[in-house]
Amino acid sequence: EYSCEYGSLKFYALCGVGGVLSCGLTHTGVVPLDLVKCRMQVDPQKYKSIFNGFSVTVKEDGVRGLAKGWAPTFIGYSMQGLCKFGFYEVFKILYGNMLGEENAYLWRTSLYLAASASAEFFADIALAPMEAAKVRIQTQPGYANTLRQALPKMFGEEGIWAFYKGVAPLWMR
């Protein structure tokens, strides 16, 4: 009747795969819009509006330029989705067991919020390195054109901190 037992490793894995598909694919699909948005934030004189930003990007980089940052977006948001969807279920069951069946039901909204916040804490740690690389690729012309170029350069210049200095703002978001 069911594809797997609730709370089993297969259950958590399926939730994680759902997160990879829903977050990784959707965020990658809107990379062109995200690229223009980031560039508008960094250089509002050059990128005056969404439509102008698309036009300037295509003029300077061609249509392929609209895909800049797709790899760190796909990897980062896939990791975030894996953690967000998978850990949400882990924490929901963990906290529910700690409260007991009746209290878990009575306090279910608070339980769901606590499970969600706990999952997001770890999901943002998983996302932060790729988000940092994506922003560098998209907003610093000449810095790096690919993830393979960006990661070693960032690590060489700033060490591991280069990948996590944006995690606190992610948590606040």
From TrEMBL:
The keyword Cell cycle does not apply. Solcar repeats lie at residues 10-94, 107-173. InterPro entries: MCP_dom_sf, MCP_transmembrane, SLC25A3/Pic2/Mir1-like. Gene3D superfamilies: Mitochondrial carrier domain. It catalyses: phosphate(in) + H(+)(in) = phosphate(out) + H(+)(out). Keywords: Membrane, Mitochondrion, Mitochondrion inner membrane, Repeat, Transmembrane, Transmembrane helix, Transport. Its main location: mitochondrion. GO terms for biological process: mitochondrial phosphate ion transmembrane transport. Belongs to the mitochondrial carrier (TC 2.A.29) family. Interacts with PPIF; the interaction is impaired by CsA. This is Solute carrier family 25 member 3. The gene is Slc25a3.
